[in-house]
Specification:
seven-stranded mixed β-sheet, four-stranded antiparallel β-sheet, globular
């Protein structure tokens, strides 16, 4: 069973930076998609950034140029470097993973972390 544990969240002022980490374990295969999502109360969970099976990265338009997703394959660790944070970036951030290709829909992701809170103040 794949398990995902996020860390690195917290509070920061607008313009600041945070680095999220996701430690993944339990993989019985080597090809998987992994990424970051976020959600605020009353809104649908949205994709922030993902890394696919070919190590291609895809970002939401709202974070391009500010966030960088990366991973260390050897120990299944995923990162999200967030720079120039804005108040609108405040959300619960989730790490998610799926075997094989990246799902197009949220319902296609089988494994989720419990989430970690990021608060950006003005």
């Amino acid at each position: 069973q794949v398990q995902l544990v996020e860390s690195g969240g917290g509070s920061v002022q607008a313009g600041g930076s945070l680095r999220l980490s996701c430690e993944a374990s339990g993989y019985a295969y080597t090809s998987y998609c992994i990424g970051w999502f976020r959600q605020t109360p009353g809104k649908e969970r949205e994709r922030v950034a993902i890394i696919d099976t070919d190590d291609e990265t895809i970002y939401a338009e709202s974070v391009k140029g500010r966030f960088t997703i990366s991973r260390i394959k050897a120990n299944h660790t995923l990162f999200l470097q967030m720079n120039n944070l804005k108040v609108d970036d405040s959300a619960m951030f989730y790490c998610a993973s799926q075997r094989g290709n990246c799902p197009l829909r949220l319902s296609g992701w089988d494994y989720w972390g419990k989430g970690i809170l990021v608060i950006v103040s003005s």
